[in-house]
Automatic annotation (TrEMBL):
Gene3D superfamilies: 2.70.98.10
Single Gene Ontology MF annotation: carbohydrate binding
Pfam families linked to this entry: DUF4432 (PF14486)
Organism expressing this protein natively: Faecalicatena contorta
Protein name: Galactose mutarotase
Membrane-spanning intervals of the chain: none
């Protein structure tokens, strides 16, 4: 909403929260019982949920009445129902709602592994951590109302790390965009690793047969033999198939790292979603293509080092660390488009040659 038009809307709507705003809610049934969340609507057909009790992630997002994210069959769960074990992957997968955004980190993410004697399960703990110091408000930027949500998510233990993720989410009411500003702070006194995966997910109906992906990256690298065989269609969404293996591709090499992006365009729905990220912060974008029946999903995930476990990242000499009282930052922006000229603009930034199987 434009600030300059506020008076006009007040003549027709006694309470502007009927048009846009943030609503504080608590879930009261099933595995989600007790979960503290915020429902956000921007008044311009963009609606999302932000879960304070799940690391200020975004489990649900709709644009123009259409579901955008992927809600896994495990559903929404309270972090207090999370049974953390060192079994590798099962505990995480039973709590993984997917949603539009699941954050993986802070000190480890990616595949389960053993790193320097420490057992590390899949994708870290941060998405199952309750945020602290959460607050919401409305701000003004130029002539636009902005809905703001902030909080801290801590990963800490006695005689171990003390890492805090300071998250700020900005939802714009005139333009359909969401910004995430993350600051990772080491509040301890020893160096600590930082491995982040921004697990951005798409599901039906945004994800459907014939939808197409676009990337700013220059190189595409399949991670398995099955992914290699699927290279001719790596950027095309296919029909779901029973028992089909997932495919993962790493996208790297950016001419303009600060303005890296990936886009999913559903021509039938006439909408597109753009993920903007800084490849200096997240140099590897992982494309997780799951065309399996019942687990029909697409992840376009900015990462610090792909989906490798911390042990493999360390062995490759790619491990990023920050010292005590040091910080590092991550910035993401999501754009939701419904105008053909805007969609054509973003698609024009990608070369057709990048779709070729040999275009690594």
């Amino acid at each position: 909403m434009k600030i300059s038009e506020k008076s006009k809307y007040l003549k027709k709507a006694g309470d502007l929260s009927s048009l846009y705003g943030i609503r504080d809610i608590t879930y009261n049934s099933g595995k989600a019982k007790g979960v503290h969340a915020y429902e956000v609507k921007n008044g311009n057909q963009l609606n999302l949920s932000v879960f304070a009790d799940r690391g200020l992630d975004i489990p649900m997002l709709e644009f123009k009445g259409k579901n955008i994210g992927f809600l896994a069959k495990s559903g929404i769960s309270s972090p207090f129902s999370y049974c953390y074990t060192h079994d590798g992957t099962d505990s995480f997968l039973r709590q993984f709602a997917g949603g539009f955004l699941t954050t993986c980190g802070i000190t480890f993410s990616g595949a389960a592994c053993v790193d320097e004697g420490e057992k590390l399960p899949l994708h870290g703990r941060i998405s199952n951590t309750v945020a602290e110091n959460v607050y919401v408000c409305q701000e003004e930027e130029e002539d636009e109302v902005i809905l703001k949500l902030c909080g801290d998510i801590r990963e800490a233990r006695l005689f171990g790390e003390n890492m805090v993720l300071h998250r700020k989410i900005l939802v714009y009411t005139e333009s359909n965009r969401v910004k995430i500003h993350d600051i990772v702070e080491n509040q301890g006194f020893q160096k600590q690793p930082v491995l982040m995966i921004y697990h951005v997910n798409f599901g039906y109906p945004m994800l459907d047969t014939g939808a197409r992906m676009y990337f700013s990256s220059e190189k595409v690298q399949p991670q398995t033999e099955f992914a290699r065989k699927g290279m001719p269609l790596y950027d095309i969404v296919e029909e779901p198939e029973d028992n089909r293996e997932e495919q993962c591709y790493y996208h790297t090499g950016q001419k303009d790292p600060e303005n890296s992006f990936a886009m999913l365009h559903n021509e039938k729905l006439e909408i597109a979603a753009v993920i903007k990220y800084d490849a200096r912060q997240c140099p590897v974008l992982c494309e997780w293509k799951s065309m399996q029946s019942g687990d029909y999903a697409l992840g376009l995930e900015p990462t610090t080092s792909g989906t490798k476990g911390r042990a493999e990242v360390r062995k490759a000499g790619e491990l990023r660390e920050i010292g005590g009282q040091e910080t590092c930052e991550f910035h993401l922006e999501f754009l939701f488009l419904d105008r053909s000229k805007d969609i054509k603009y973003w698609s024009s930034l990608c070369k057709e040659s990048r779709r070729l199987p040999g275009g690594f």
